[in-house]
Amino acid sequence: MTYSEKFTDGQPCWMDISTPDSAKRIALAEFLTALFGWKFEVGGPESGNYSTAFSNGRDVAGLMEMPGIPSYWTTYLHTGDIRSSTDAFVSHGGKVLTRPMQIFEMGHMAVCQDAVGAVVGLWQPIKFEGFGSHDEENSPTWFDQQSEDPKLAAACYRDVFGLSVASTPGSDDATLGSPEQKWFSVSHQPDAMPPSWNPVIQVDSLSRVTDDVSRLGGEILMNDMAVPGGKILVFNDPIVHAPLICFEVASTSNAT
C-alpha cells in the first residue's frame, strides 16, 4: 500500500491507542520506542497529553489518555465529509459511537461501529492529513479488518465509501480500495475473538521483534505466519495488552 500526500475517502490515514492514565501512556511510549525506534512529541494538557509518534521525523501513530476506555489500536479512515460518512454507516447497518467533533485546527473526528461490530475512526482533515511515513521500516504498511462475516464487512465499506472490492478466490476475504490500488483487507476473525481493525507495522526482522517483545515483557500470540509478500508476527504489548501486527517483507536474496 502506498500513499499520496492527500488521502482518498475510505483510505486508512491514522492510528492511535487509548491508555488509562499518564503512567501507562509513558510506559507504552517507552516500549514502542524500544521496539520501533519511534520518537514522541507530547501535547499540552488541553490535548489530554496526546502523544504523536514519529519514525524518521514523520508522523506514524498517536497515544492518548482515556480512563475507563478499553485499550486497543483504532484505525481512522479519511473522509471529505464526516457527517455524510457517519450517516452512511448508520444507513448500512452501523452505529455512531462518537459524533463528529473538531479537534483544534487539526481536523474533525468521529468513531463508528460498522455493520459487523468493528470499531473504526473517521478523520476529515483541516491542517493534519494523517500518516507522514508509510511502507517503510517501523511505519504502517497495511490494515486488516477481521470479523465473522467478511462479506458483510466488505459490503459495508463498499457502500459507505464507494470502494472497489477484490474478492479472494475460494474465500469470503477481500481487499478494498480504489480500482487501481487496494488499501486494506477484510478477513475472517478467529473464533471467539471480537471484530476488530488491526494496523500492520513493517519491520526489518520478525526475529528481532520477537526477541525484543519477549525481553520487554510482551506476549507473542502468533509468529512467522506466511502472508502475501512476507510473514507476520502478532503480539500483545506488556503495558495495556493490546494486540499489534508486524510484517517482514519476503527476502528476494534467493530470487532467480
Automatic annotation (TrEMBL):
Residue ranges of the TM segments: none
Coiled coil: none
Stored InterPro entries: Anthracycline_SecMetBiosynth (IPR052164), Glyas_Bleomycin-R_OHBP_Dase (IPR029068)
Name of the featured protein: 27 kDa antigen Cfp30B
